[in-house]
């Protein structure tokens, strides 16, 4: 009773009966004998129930469920460590179609960047190009790889991705593994070198291959990319190669004398990739020029450095075939010493008078000016002539050479007193041909692709020539065509025309861009040689007038050189106040 309250201490008991009240201490109430020890609990169950027996079936079942859960967790963690999930990434191909990369147990059968993981769990990425695809790949395949590289690199880097570092042209991606290293680490299967070219030479440690592909039918952009690639390879200590397998104009030796001979042989096709720039073996073409010579390239190198690189490539590679080079020398000498092609000649003029040459390049076709007022049309021909007159005046000792992709410009009433830059290979206007097969309005890519097409192709595709073939090749289509098979159900297709019934399956599926007919190839060669002869003749002029929106105008500045083109002002741009650039 005394210890029942714990909230407040108990009051002491008061003893009465005496004069002086006394208080009883608690120790008087405690027993004098020791407190008995508490008893141990009984081994018998309460209420007479027996203890439950140990159920072995439940234990086995619990262990099985636990092992299943552990196994599932292990499989999930192992799958995440061996491959990096890219299922959340969506990419846009060069054809404009979107697709997603998903995890797979096998390597894809097309060129693509891959995310891999080593035994330590560190993530890397590399480029996978199956060896059975051959070399070179269709230009769309290289463009697709470069369009995916940045997204895959960003995904692998995760939180370590720094956008500003990737603006540097020579930034080394720390998570990238070169193809050869990836093969030695068993991330990729080993490649087999089956090329018989340059037999007996060792494989190059670093190389750059420029592919003359069908991504751009224009020769101007091809020459600019070729010259810059040559100088870039020398600057980075890479062996340089030129591949003309898919060149729409035919063989490189048709236009130029020989190719540069390296001291080593190119690596296997699987090791030559278009991106990233730090790869040991690079592939460059018109399809990948935006990544190779884009904003990062122009921010790393100054305008003068880019110009000098193009100039160095021009001096090394622009060597016309012997007969065309001889024609250019003789024509320049003839035009400087006599003026027989010009009707406006003074009778008292000495035959040995040296004439100055003013080259005028007038671009039409599908290349429109940069100037806002004429960007939907063309600069008037009189603009070029008035600019030339400002340079040299009305003196009769100057000969005006005209080169144009529009044959009608040679007889234009706004260009009096001009003569053709070269007459060895001349474009014919439709006005002078009854067959209607002449060149009209300038260079258009669709008209170029339609040259020399067989009857069954024009009947199936129409007058504009074959449709673009930029899709990724499927497993059931040829790797050379680059066409993508479309099995999407739709309305019934029309019956093929009668011209298609007698055509073999090989010719029906043939890509006439990269594998033209004999007649088409001959026409393309004439166009290419005429373009190069025009450039060579205008480059021997004392002054050049052109529009910088044209690649030919930019090339002519390179052929003149920096001192003549800009310091001496022998190169005049009539397309606004825009400066010289290599690529937009």
Automatic annotation (TrEMBL):
<protein>
    <submittedName>
        <fullName>Uncharacterized protein</fullName>
    </submittedName>
</protein>
<dbReference type="GO" id="GO:0046921">
    <property type="term" value="F:alpha-(1-&gt;6)-fucosyltransferase activity"/>
</dbReference>
<dbReference type="GO" id="GO:0006487">
    <property type="term" value="P:protein N-linked glycosylation"/>
</dbReference>
<feature type="region of interest" description="Disordered">
    <location>
        <begin position="459"/>
        <end position="515"/>
    </location>
</feature>
<feature type="compositionally biased region" description="Basic and acidic residues">
    <location>
        <begin position="505"/>
        <end position="515"/>
    </location>
</feature>
């Amino acid at each position: 009773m005394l210890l029942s309250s714990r909230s407040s201490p108990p009051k002491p008991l008061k003893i009465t009966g005496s004069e002086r009240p006394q208080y009883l201490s608690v120790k008087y109430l405690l027993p004098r004998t020791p407190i008995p020890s508490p008893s141990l609990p009984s081994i018998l169950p309460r209420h007479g129930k027996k203890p439950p027996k140990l159920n072995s079936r439940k234990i086995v079942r619990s262990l099985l469920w636990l092992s299943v859960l552990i196994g599932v967790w292990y499989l999930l963690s192992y799958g995440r460590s061996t491959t990096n999930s890219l299922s959340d990434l969506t990419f846009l191909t060069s054809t404009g179609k979107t697709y997603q990369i998903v995890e797979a147990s096998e390597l894809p059968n097309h060129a693509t960047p891959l995310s891999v993981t080593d035994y330590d769990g560190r993530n890397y990425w590399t480029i996978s190009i199956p060896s059975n695809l051959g070399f070179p790949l269709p230009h769309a395949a290289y463009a697709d790889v470069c369009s995916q590289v940045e997204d895959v690199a960003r995904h692998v880097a995760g939180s370590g991705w720094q956008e500003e570092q990737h603006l540097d042209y020579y930034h080394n991606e720390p998570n990238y593994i070169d193809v050869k290293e990836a093969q030695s680490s068993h991330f990729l299967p080993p490649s087999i070198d089956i090329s018989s070219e340059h037999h007996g030479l060792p494989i190059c440690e670093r190389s750059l291959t420029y592919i003359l592909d069908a991504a751009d039918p224009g020769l101007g952009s091809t020459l600019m990319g070729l010259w810059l690639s040559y100088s870039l390879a020398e600057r980075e200590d890479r062996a340089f190669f030129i591949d003309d397998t898919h060149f729409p104009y035919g063989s490189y030796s048709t236009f130029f004398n020989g190719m540069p001979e390296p001291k080593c042989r190119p690596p296997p096709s699987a090791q030559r990739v278009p991106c990233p720039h730090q790869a040991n073996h690079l592939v460059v073409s018109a399809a990948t020029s935006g990544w190779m010579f884009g904003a990062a390239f122009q921010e790393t190198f100054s305008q003068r450095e880019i110009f000098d690189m193009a100039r160095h490539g021009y001096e090394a590679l622009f060597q016309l075939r012997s007969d065309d080079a001889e024609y250019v020398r003789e024509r320049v000498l003839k035009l400087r010493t006599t003026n027989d092609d010009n009707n406006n000649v003074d009778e008292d003029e000495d035959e040995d008078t040296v004439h100055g040459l003013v080259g005028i390049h007038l671009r039409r076709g599908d290349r429109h000016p940069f100037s806002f007022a004429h960007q939907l049309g063309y600069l008037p021909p009189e603009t070029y002539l008035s600019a030339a007159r400002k340079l040299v005046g009305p003196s009769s000792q100057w000969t005006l050479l005209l080169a144009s992709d529009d044959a009608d410009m040679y007889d234009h009433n706004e260009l009096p007193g001009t003569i053709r830059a070269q007459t060895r290979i001349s474009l014919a206007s439709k006005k002078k041909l009854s067959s209607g097969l002449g060149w009209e309005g300038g260079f258009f890519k669709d008209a170029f692709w339609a040259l020399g097409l067989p009857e069954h192709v024009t009947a199936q595709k129409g007058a504009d020539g074959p449709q673009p073939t930029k899709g990724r090749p499927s497993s059931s289509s040829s790797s050379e065509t680059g066409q993508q098979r479309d099995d999407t159900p739709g309305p019934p297709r029309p019956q093929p025309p009668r011209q298609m019934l007698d055509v073999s399956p090989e010719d029906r599926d043939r890509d006439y861009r990269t594998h033209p007919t004999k007649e088409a190839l001959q026409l393309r060669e004439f166009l290419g040689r005429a373009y190069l002869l025009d450039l060579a003749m205008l480059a021997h002029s004392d002054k050049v007038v052109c529009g910088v929106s044209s690649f030919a105008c930019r090339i002519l500045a390179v052929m003149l050189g920096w001192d003549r083109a800009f310091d001496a002002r022998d190169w005049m741009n009539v397309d606004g106040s825009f400066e010289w650039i290599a690529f937009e």
